[in-house]
Amino acid sequence: MAIGVKLTTTRNQEKAKAKAAQAATAAPPMTPEREELLRPPAFDLFLQRIRQAVEETELPLGKIGLALLMVVVVSGGAYWFYSYNQAKGEQAFAEALAMYNAEVREAPKEGEAAKEDDPPIPGKKTYPDEKTKYTEAAAAFDKAAGYASQSFMSRYYAALCRLKLDPAQGIQALRDLSVTPGAVGQLATLALADALAAEGKVDEAIAQYQQLREKCAQAGNNAVVSPEVIAFALGKLYEAKQDPAAAVKEYAIAAKSRSMALLGQQAYQRLAALDPEMARQIPEPKQGGEDDTF
Fold first, then answer.
1. Same domain, yes or no, for 231 and 147?
2. CA separation for the pair 255, 277 (Å, rounded)
3. Distance between terminal CA atoms of the chain?
């Protein structure tokens, strides 16, 4: 019995020693103080840098936030102003265009009765004479030109109005606009060439039509004046200049037009008159049809 008690006591002592040894080698419980002691120096440096960066950028961040807010407000205001400006420009241009396209109804002369078969249409703007019409339209287009979205096209129509009132002034305005890139430059060059031809300035008109041909060729699919229109105009000018060979060449181009039936017919007739043999080599354009492009 004594031997059994002794063995039990010995085992208990050995277990107690093992637990004591395990406790001695085990890590002590993690406390805030111990965590602070065990934290690597590099981590402390990292936290310190973050804290310093936050402290240094606290005020600038507020300024940046205010700046961003100002950018948003300014951008929104700019977009609103642009949309408002565009809408006002379109409205001003539409009003000016209505004046430009308005009908001229001359007042009946004294003792002459008004035409009953052509009564005025309520709400439709009319003018008593062309001078009044184009004077008001030019002023309206000048106003519309003040809006960036309608500037070039408004200036183009204003030049057309002045061409009716004062040809010299209109020609100069068109000449200034003819260097404008895009559709407006092409249209202005066409109007300028037409105006010069109407004044009998054949060589100048030919030069402008040739420049227009180059512009339209460079524009490709964005050209707004068809090659046939240019060719027909040049054909008439060369014919007036008594240069039948050059006229035939241009009329042959215009006579091939299928999108502009009437122009093609007229060009073919002139071609047949100047060079019947050349005309026989080109299919005669069909009679009828409407012109639907420049």
1. no
2. 14
3. 130
If one counts every other C-beta atom within 10 angstroms of the C-beta of residue 171, the result is: 21
pLDDT tens, position by position, 69-84: 555 544 554 444 456 5
Q: Which of 51-55, 231-235, 246-250, 262-266 is predicted with the least confidence, judged by mean pLDDT?
A: 51-55
Contacts of the segment 25-34: beta carbons below 8 A, 24+ positions apart: none
Is residue 266 situated within a structural domain? yes
- Specify if 212 maps to a domain: yes
Q: What CATH number does residue 136 fall under? A: 1.25.40.10
Interatomic CA distance for residues 12 and 135, integer angstroms: 122
Q: Does 239 share its domain with 267?
A: yes
CA nearest neighbour of 223 among 231, 212, 234, 233: 212
Structural tokens at position 25:
């080698």
Q: How many helices (H) and strands (E) does the chain have?
A: 12, 2
| Same-domain check for residues 213 and 240 | no
- Summarised one tens digit per residue, pLDDT across range 125-183 is 889 999 999 999 999 999 999 987 788 999 999 999 999 999 999 999 999 999 998 99
Identify the helix (H) or strand (E) that includes residue 229.
Answer: helix 227-240
**Please, which residues bridge with residue 104 across strands?**
127
Number of domains making up the chain:
2
Query: Is residue 137 one of the residues assigned to a domain?
Result: yes
For 191, the domain range is: 129-225
- Asked if 194 and 256 sit in the same domain, the reply is no
pLDDT band at 105 (very low <50, low <70, confident <90, very high): confident
